[in-house]
Amino acid sequence: MIYWLFANVLDVIDNLFFGEMIMSELNGNILPIIYVVAGVFQNKKREILLIKRPKDKPMPGLWEFPGGKIEAGETPEQALVRELNEEISLTPLKFRPLSFVSHTYDTFHILLLPYLVTEWEGNFDLLEHQQGYMWVMLEDMHNFSKPTASQKVIEYITRKSSLKPKESDSNELFSEMDCSIKCVQR
Predict the structure, then answer these.
(1) Distance between CA 130 and CA 128 in Å, rounded?
(2) Is the pLDDT confidence value at 14 over 90?
(3) Predicted model pTM
(4) Helix, strand, coil % in the chain, rounded to nearest 5
(5) Farthest-apart Cα atoms in the chain, separation
């Protein structure tokens, strides 16, 4: 079952890179699927970076992870580097995929690919008219209104970090890859 799910996600992502328009059907409505990457930045204090969405964009004022749409012909990793440079003037140096989120909003369906970013370079700056930023501890994330897809990433991180032994030397939230990725590699 896990292999089937992961293989189908890969097929969907492959279709994006060949430039095909993929649509999602919900209640008889056909919605465009938007492929997005996000950087889940974690600093040395184990705080996570949240960015407040601009007033002139959909879901204004909600807190989310920096990132954006994957362009045709781009790998998710290339999109992550490009989007983070364009949005917050940072280049991720050490990052890895966390999992994925698939969520339907009223007018589109999103496939979100979050990456844990633990090392970066550059001078942080809000370049796309965002309303602000905060470094937040995982246990305080509930105090911030977020888009549903971002909330699902937080729930995933919370679940995974609660499974990690507290005495670990690692400064990362968790160190094991998602089972769906490990199972395919066997």
Answers:
(1) 6
(2) no
(3) 0.74
(4) 30, 30, 40
(5) 51
